[in-house]
Amino acid sequence: MKNFWKQLPYLLLFLILGTYIGIQLNKHFSFSGNKKQIDKFGEILSYTEDYYVDTVNSNKLVEDAIKGMFSELDPHTVYIDKEEQSAEEETFRGNFDGIGVEFQIVNDTITVVSPITGGPSESLGIISGDRIVKIDGHSSIGWKNQDVIKKLRGKKGTSVELTIFRPSLKGTTDYKVIRDKINLYSIDASLMIDNETGYINLTKFAETTTDEMQNALQDLTSKGMKRLVLDLRNNPGGYEFQASNVADFFIDGNKMIVYNKGRVKKFNEEFRAEKSYPYEKIPLILLVNRGSASASEIVSGAVQDWDRGLIVGETTFGKGLVQRPIQLSDGSAVRITIAKYYTPSGRQIQRDYKDKQKYYQDVMARKESDGNNINHKTEKDSAKPKFKTKNGRTVYGGGGITPDYIIESGTISNYSVELRRNNIYYQFVRNYLDKNGKQIREKFKNNLKLFIKEFQFNEEQMQSFIKFAESLKVKFNSKEYNIDKEMIRAWLKAYVARDMFKNNGWYLTLLQTDRQFKKAISLFGEAEKLEGLSK
Hints:
Blueprint: H1 2-30, H2 32-51, H3 58-70, E1 78-80, H4 82-93, E2 95-98, E3 101-106, E4 109-115, H5 120-124, E5 131-135, E6 138-139, H6 145-152, E7 159-166, E8 171-178, E9 180-183, E10 187-192, E11 197-202, H7 209-222, E12 227-231, H8 240-248, E13 256-261, E14 269-272, E15 284-288, H9 295-305, E16 310-313, E17 321-327, E18 333-342, H10 356-365, E19 371-372, E20 386-388, E21 394-396, E22 405-406, H11 414-421, H12 424-444, H13 448-454, H14 459-471, H15 478-511, H16 515-521, H17 524-531
Parallel strand pairs: 11-12, 12-15, 15-16, 16-22
Antiparallel strand pairs: 1-18, 2-9, 3-4, 4-5, 5-6, 5-7, 7-8, 10-11, 13-14, 13-18, 17-18, 19-22, 20-21
Helix pairs in contact: 1-2, 8-9, 12-15
């Protein structure tokens, strides 16, 4: 024991010396490059905080510095602040806690667009068109969207008091709503177009997408579905494994769906068809447009490469990079590109992104001509790399997924743009339904197909719409109105349909005049030939 006490000073000396040497080695070797740069940044930030002429927000300076660093990388490596990250997590998680209503603020008043199916507001009888005039006893007139969300969302099981004005009752009613878990769905609509044709509109690839797709496919099959239109237009993507699962519903065997390659080998990954489904032989058509990106392009690319179905619409966005989300300690996050993904034939569909401003502008400025592109001759002079589909058709990499049948969505006039931008459709239809909604519901009840067949806005009502738009400062343009008149009439009808039949009513109404969709359903014979399904 005495020897131990004698040696203790030497042991402490060696410990201190070892620690010091370790720190110095750490500085000069392990973190020499990065640490110097981090120290440099900290030094500059400190001087700025101490000496800058005005008071500075250090948090904002750091966030702007991160954004500046990422600006030198690809367009999809991004920093996401705490609030954005929270909202994004909800979107892809597929649920949040709240009262379950979609709303708009119209003339300073919170207006219920639709109660969410299965949510607490629907169960209490809150309906489309209700105005929320008080929340917890305080007037909610003049509130902003973020104020409403903050008050209506909250922990499951907690309550909120709503005072609601319903025009048909000409008075207010108080509701005590118990918050619950509200599901956010990635399928906006799932319906039968006719006795054999199913239609699914998929808006994103979230945690619940595979389950939603399976339920939708089973439901449509029970209703007689023998062929399917899968609408991926304006679907910006989401989880890669969910895209693989969706493609797996339609692709048989152990076929490749997508694979990733990165600088770091552990991020190299393959996704293959794994399960057998009864949908692997049904005629299939995918609708895409310039807003279809990422995971949407994974599904489209796999279907096209295996000649499993036809792709109809416009060339997709062209995003072929895989991001990994990384949560930071303060609740913010970064999404860092870790790999590129490739379709089964080997196509890398990412567009060039050296000029980031042009990267996004090019998509909107792109012009394509309608026509049969089954052999992809529209790209025959392209310098892009060539690949072959299962049946030997030539397809091209480096620029999104080009459809087998190119059909532009069509342009709309400036007058129509202003009608949408100023929310004229919804406001007009809301007023119309406040007066006529009861009679219309009694006439059509739950019969959507009868509504599609018989309901129409007449000429007198169309003139009222023009005057209503003018009262809200949207100047009438006779020439542009006449060009878009039937489209405007269809949009008005769709808003009524959504109020009565929710999303299925909205989509089925608009599909009646949708040129891309109408072309798609005329091509099932071609789809069967391509897939070798025709008898």
